[in-house]
Every structure is written in structure tokens, then in C-alpha cells.
Amino acid sequence: MRNYPRIIFTYSSVYDRRYKEMWLKEGKRNYPSPKKVLNYIKKVEKLWRKDEKKVLKELSKITHLEWRAEFIPCYVVGRCRPFSMPLTVPICEKKDYFIDVLVHELIHNLFTQNKERLKKAWNYFNKKYKTKSWTIRLHVLVHAIHSHIYFKFFGEKRLKENIKIISFRPDYKKAWEIVEKEGYNDIISELVERLD
Questions:
Q1: Strand, coil or helix: 83
Q2: What is the Rg, in whole angstroms, of the alpha carbon atoms belonging to the chain?
């Protein structure tokens, strides 16, 4: 097995239909058609393949965590809040932003694949940020690692755009502020020092 997984972009009509039902139930309109989602997958897959190997290898290298899965299905749906297990990402207006969301969720996925090795690190960060919400504590680590990926491969401008887009979520915004203040390299080092 190679030392990084292959992301398999997947469309499930049943899965997508559930999200469409929730979307419409909330009184929202303009849910993308299956055809639009399938066409979108073709475009973002090409974009992702250019960076897949280097990004996934770098995530493992800087965190000292191993990818344990050979393949990771990534379900693409019309609209949803993205999450890491099962890896699910919605259509995003900007395809670069889709890649950024995908990387964010893959960092979560890498943590899940290595939960045993991370116990000591989580104890440390839970104490260090005990006055902060669980979402902030978790995302300080995710954002620190993601910052490294931005600076190495995508640039500071794109990082700042991502921070701006997600700033409507107070916990994410606070986590980014902590990463900026403490420095992403120092946070990653604190993580690596405490792996089992």
C-alpha cells in the first residue's frame, strides 16, 4: 500500500436525495440537480488529482500520523454542512474552496484514523484550552495543520479568503485567531511531541 490514500469521488442519489429533502424542508430553494452534481464531480476531481499526492503525503509527514485507509470515498452532494465520516462535501461556488473544504475534512479524517495515538495530545490540548468550547479546541489543531498546507501549496491569499468565508461561525473564527496568535508551527510541534 502506498503511504497516502486515494480519494474516490462518489455520487449516491439516495444520499443526495436526503439532503435535498432537508434543504427543501427548511424552505430553501435551488438545490442542484443530480446532473449538475455529477458534472461538478468531474471538474473538482481533475483539480484535486493535481494536488492529491503532495497534500496527503504532507499531512502525514507534518503530523507524524499514518493514513490507515487505502481509499476514502468522498460523497459529493448538492448542499450540506461538510463532515469527515463519511467524508461528505457539498458543491461550492469556487472550486478552490471545495478543495479547501476537502482538505479540512481530510484532516479530521486523519485524526479519526489515528485516535489511539492522539489520546495524550487531546488531553494536553483539552487542558490548555479548557475555557474554550470543544469545537474551538478541535479546530485549533485542524486550522494549524491546514495553515501549513495553505502556506506550502496554495498561498496566504487563499488562506485569508478561507478565514473570511468561515468567519460567520464564531468557534471557527476564534480557532483561527488562536492559530494566528500562537503560530501554526508551534501548535503542530505541540501535537507531534505528545503522540503515543
A1: strand
A2: 17
**CA 34 centroid distance within chain:** 24
CA-wise closest residue to 153 among 74, 43, 56:
56
Cell matching residue 151: 502556506
Please write the tens of the pLDDT for every residue from 124-175: 999 999 999 999 999 999 999 999 999 999 999 999 999 999 999 999 999 9
- The C-alpha atoms of residue 75 and residue 72 are separated, in whole angstroms, by 10
Does residue 87 sit in helix, strand or coil?
Answer: strand
Secondary structure (DSSP) of 130-155: TTS-HHHHHHHHHHHHHHHHIIIII-
Considering the entire predicted model, what is its pTM? 0.96
* Furthest-apart CA atoms within the chain: distance in Å: 48
| Angle (CA) 23 25 29, round 5° | 50
